[in-house]
């Protein structure tokens, strides 16, 4: 991710121009990972849990100042990295063929990573909100964190199987 | 409709009937707004006319400029303006129009570029000299512009300014001028299409934009719990939610424009360097057109 950060600013554009396969591969993975984290942060939570199931809401008024601030930054990062990921994808696409399977693996890993982060840091450490209110939380937490770990493992497995094989042009 | 507010007892005028002076103040406010909007509309058209001999001006910029003026006008005159005096939700809708949408559209209208095309070279030079000055450099830094923009909102909603604004035409005018100008500066510093000799790097602009987007929901949720003095709870909550979701929509547009700028700035030129002759010439031509 740090490689992608510098390249967004100034760095890797000339490298990529020379057709460096490593840079473009790294950018494909970064794109998928950012997009995966982004849709997990800004869409899955909003569409499924806020609007669909209505398990937790816009705001419950009991949130502390720290949690409120942290939530604001998660929210901002969510949109930012979703769009960042898509622009990186567009950038890879205009330079070379996108390895879609690898990109998909990175997206799944990104979703899993964010759900795990959300489940552990937001729900348990900062206690911004819980998965659901008025129920025994344990099964929900196990399902949430377990599914996140599963997704992360599937994503990493796909990334491993689609890794570039030594020679790149 | 504005007379309604005078019952709140604010008396700034020493002479004559308070109501008369206040009404006169509001009329003056409307007049200044109309004058500013007409000047902006006619000025843009005059510049288009003066630069008609040059390369064609993209229609989307003209459309963006006039749409921006409509948004600003919709906030300051007419039904939204009237409702905003009593309803916090309407006030927030107006804020989205005047502080976010109108500045964004006006920035996309590229007024500085248009003026530079329209005026004689000597005057264009003095304008660019002004744009390079230290003062402009400071206030167009994204960090400064973000503080002016978000800081102004915090002050407005967390102090008595919000109530005061509805009783004095002068304060009303100053607050709205600040909201609009800070919104314009902020938008231009992040995604401006006009020439900007001090444009901050993409990482700096990204960091400022993320912090600003984070401040939005934080302020919205804070307002949800603490509506400004004199605002009904339900009205305050509806307004705060509008701020949360409406602000998001405009924020997403800002992120897209920021990355779109990066995307076109890092356009690969490799094809032009490659041995395939005819294709390289064609790409060079495309590059020159942009």
Automatic annotation (TrEMBL), chain A:
Keywords recorded for this protein, A-Z: Membrane, Transmembrane, Transmembrane helix
Region (Disordered): 1-20
The keyword Amino-acid biosynthesis is annotated on this UniProt entry: no
Transmembrane helix as UniProt keyword: yes
A matching Pfam family: DUF2243
InterPro entries: DUF2243_membrane
Transmembrane segments: 33-53, 73-92, 99-117, 137-160
Protein name (Swiss-Prot/TrEMBL): Membrane protein
Organism, scientific name: Citricoccus zhacaiensis
Origin organism lineage: Bacteria, Bacillati, Actinomycetota, Actinomycetes, Micrococcales
UniProtKB/TrEMBL annotation, chain B:
Pfam families named among the record's database cross-references: Caa3_CtaG
Cellular location(s): Cell membrane
Major location (coarse): membrane
InterPro entries tied to this protein: Caa3_assmbl_CtaG-rel (IPR019108)
Membrane topology annotation: Multi-pass membrane protein
Annotated stretches, region: Disordered: 268-290
Domain of life the protein comes from: Bacteria
Segments passing through the bilayer: 26-51, 63-84, 96-117, 138-157, 169-192, 204-224, 244-265
Keyword terms of this UniProt record: Cell membrane, Membrane, Transmembrane, Transmembrane helix
Official protein name in the record: Membrane protein
Taxonomic lineage from the root: Bacteria, Bacillati, Actinomycetota, Actinomycetes, Micrococcales
């Amino acid at each position: 991710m740090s490689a992608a950060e510098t390249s967004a600013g100034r760095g890797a554009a000339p490298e990529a121009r020379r057709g460096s396969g490593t840079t473009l591969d790294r950018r494909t993975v970064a794109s998928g990972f950012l997009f995966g984290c982004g849709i997990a942060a800004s869409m899955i939570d909003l569409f499924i849990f806020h609007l669909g199931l209505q398990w937790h809401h816009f705001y419950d008024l009991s949130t502390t100042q720290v949690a409120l601030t942290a939530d604001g930054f998660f929210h901002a990062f969510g949109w930012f990295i979703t769009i960042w990921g898509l622009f990186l994808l567009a950038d890879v696409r205009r330079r070379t063929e996108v390895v879609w399977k690898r990109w998909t693996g990175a997206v799944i890993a990104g979703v899993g990573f964010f759900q795990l982060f959300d489940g552990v840091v937001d729900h348990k450490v900062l206690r911004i909100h819980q998965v659901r209110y008025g129920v025994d939380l344990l099964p929900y937490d196990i399902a949430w964190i377990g599914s996140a770990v599963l997704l992360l493992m599937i994503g990493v497995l796909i990334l491993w199987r689609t890794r570039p094989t030594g020679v790149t042009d | 409709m504005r007379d309604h507010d005078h019952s709140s007892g604010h008396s700034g005028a020493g002479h004559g009937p308070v109501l008369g002076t206040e009404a006169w103040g509001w009329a003056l406010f409307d007049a200044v707004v109309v004058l500013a909007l007409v000047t902006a509309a006619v000025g843009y058209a005059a510049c288009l006319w003066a630069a008609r001999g040059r390369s064609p001006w993209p229609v989307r910029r003209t459309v963006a400029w006039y749409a921006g003026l409509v948004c600003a006008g919709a906030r300051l005159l007419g039904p939204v303006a009237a409702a905003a005096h009593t309803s916090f939700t309407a006030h927030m809708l107006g804020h989205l129009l005047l502080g976010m949408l109108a500045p964004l559209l006006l920035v996309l209208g590229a007024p500085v570029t248009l003026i530079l095309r329209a005026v004689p070279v000597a005057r264009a030079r003095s304008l660019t000299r002004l744009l390079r000055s230290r003062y402009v450099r400071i206030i167009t830094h994204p960090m400064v512009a973000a503080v002016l923009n978000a800081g102004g909102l915090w002050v407005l909603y967390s102090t008595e300014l919000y109530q005061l604004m509805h009783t004095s035409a002068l304060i009303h005018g100053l607050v709205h001028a600040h909201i609009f100008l800070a919104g314009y500066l902020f938008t231009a510093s992040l995604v401006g299409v006009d020439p900007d000799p001090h444009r901050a790097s993409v990482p700096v602009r990204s960091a400022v934009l993320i912090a600003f987007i984070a401040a939005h929901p934080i302020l919205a949720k804070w307002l949800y719990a603490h509506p400004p003095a004199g605002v009904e709870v339900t009205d305050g909550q509806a307004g705060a939610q509008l701020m949360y979701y409406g602000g998001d929509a405009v924020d997403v547009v800002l992120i897209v424009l920021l990355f779109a700028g990066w995307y076109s700035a890092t356009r690969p030129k490799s094809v032009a360097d490659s041995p395939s002759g005819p294709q390289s010439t064609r790409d060079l031509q495309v590059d020159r057109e942009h």
